[in-house]
Amino acid sequence: MRMSRLFGRTLRETPADAEMASHRLLLRAGMIRPLGTGLYTFLPLGWRVLSKLQQVLREEMDAVGGQEMLMPVVNPAEVWQASGRWETVDDTLLRFRDRNGHDMLLAMTHEEVVADLLRREVDSWRQLPATVYHIQTKFRDELRSRGGLIRVREFVMADAYSVHADIADLEAYYPRMLQAYRSIFARCEVDPVAVEADSGMMGGSASHEFVLLNLGGEDTIVSCDACTYAANAEQAVFAKPPSERGAGAEDDLQPIAEVATPGCTSIEQVARYVGVHPSQTLKAVFFVTEEPSPTLIFAVIRGDLEVNEAKLSKSLGGLSLRAAEEGEIQASGAVPGYASPMGVRGARVIADDSVHLGVNFVTGANREGYHLTGVNYGRDFAAEIVTDIALARDGDRCPRCLGTLHARRGIELGHCFKLGTRYTAPAGITYQDVNGEEKHIVMGSYGIGLGRLMAAIVEEHHDEHGILWPARVAPYTTHLVSLVRGDELVAQADALYGELTGAGIDVLYDDRPGLSAGVRFNDADLIGCPLRLTFSQRSLKSGGVEAKLRASEERRVIPVDGIQELVSTL
């Protein structure tokens, strides 16, 4: 491609709103341009990178038996109503009505469409298992877009769906897809960590995220320093210690006593005033779910711990939650800052299992300025559900080996789900097994955001001058810079360009007139092709062209007939 004809241009200045390196460099290198909030155009250079990523993905999906197809981005509401997600997914799902008044949506994922296809196409065990995939535009109406391609509203995703006769077959296939994802990332020269993750709105029995460690990421992963345990913070568990009680504390259950605690509305204030460790207190955290009607959720957890909203939602069957307002809390009989699960009305009480790891807790009295001591689960209050709803934090103990957990930020690059019959059972989608019995089809779902992967590669491969693309996904493997003038020498440079492209080499040819060598070299570094070839009078006198790898400062003159061999080593 001649740069004199290339659509788009590089930018000298860094855009003011670009915080992450990938955002800055993709804009400056002429790869992407913003259209609106969370909406980006891929210019020709950026589209070439995206196309090469798609090819890597196709090869790896085909290798595990995937068959490519294409599903619509616009879906009728009926298929999402069949799964229940039309009602349960929040406003990130963009809904609209067509001219005939039919409810429609822009799909953010395609489990429902695949389930609908299964209803139409699969009726026998002989058709299972199978894997299909597509590369399609998706839309999530994110409240806040940031980081360039890291969090957008419209994005290109490569999502695959496997279908199986039973859970055992899904369990056998799932590791193959995890390995395919590892191969995709390895070929793109990024090294994310595979962690246990919360399935969220997708549902299913288990899932794994591939998270690239990066301080600018929005995900938090928790991993052990002594074993292989790693999980997304939304899913992570940890070994909870018993509550810390002072010397001479009794194990016998004490009677409840009300104590004045003027002005003590935080756990720290209460613990200090009463003279106990925060782990001897109980904390109240309030949420509201609108499903099926507004209901107050009263989460009870030990005072030294924090509620994990994702775990809480999962304990309630995946209900969407929001923070409760003061009036909603007071309507239950609870008093904000002095709340207790004792005596509340009209609320669903969910307790963390840490309530079993201590006795004689301090909790609110549901009266301003007062708390209760000697409160014990089972005797004094009960919960509808007792389960793990605690957030794992840096420094907690590993649930497997009791090593120390460390929390780190990262970017989610891919997510794999064991969906089971989450989408087929509600819709009654079955097949006939070898014995003639009707069974629900079992599904797995797997997705990689290609724009985010592109940004992640830049996050991992850049320096102060620009991008350093891995050869496999670079827009062009070779950047030919011409520094010659005069018709005869320009013709020689053009001939070299023609020779290289004729040999099947991807070449970006800087033939722009009137630019200094410095501007050309700066653009070459910014765009980041793996190999730069400089055609100049000086290189010709030395017998060829000057070759410089983008990742190295070394320059050497090589003969023209040695270029193909050098390119083959990239």
Layout: helices, strands, pairs:
Layout: H1 21-28, E1 32-36, E2 39-42, H2 44-63, E3 66-68, E4 74-76, H3 77-83, H4 85-88, E5 94-97, E6 103-106, H5 111-121, E7 130-139, E8 154-164, H6 167-187, E9 193-197, E10 206-213, E11 219-224, E12 230-232, E13 257-260, H7 267-274, E14 282-289, E15 295-302, H8 309-315, E16 322-323, H9 326-330, E17 347-352, E18 361-364, E19 370-375, E20 385-387, E21 405-420, E22 430-432, E23 438-440, E24 442-449, H10 450-460, E25 462-463, E26 466-467, E27 478-482, H11 487-502, E28 507-510, H12 517-527, E29 531-535, H13 537-541, E30 545-549, E31 555-558, H14 563-568
Parallel strand pairs: 3-7, 15-17, 17-20, 27-28, 27-29
Antiparallel strand pairs: 1-2, 4-6, 5-6, 7-8, 8-24, 9-10, 10-21, 11-12, 11-21, 13-19, 14-15, 14-16, 18-19, 21-24, 22-23, 25-26, 29-30, 30-31
Helix pairs in contact: 1-10, 2-6, 2-10, 3-5
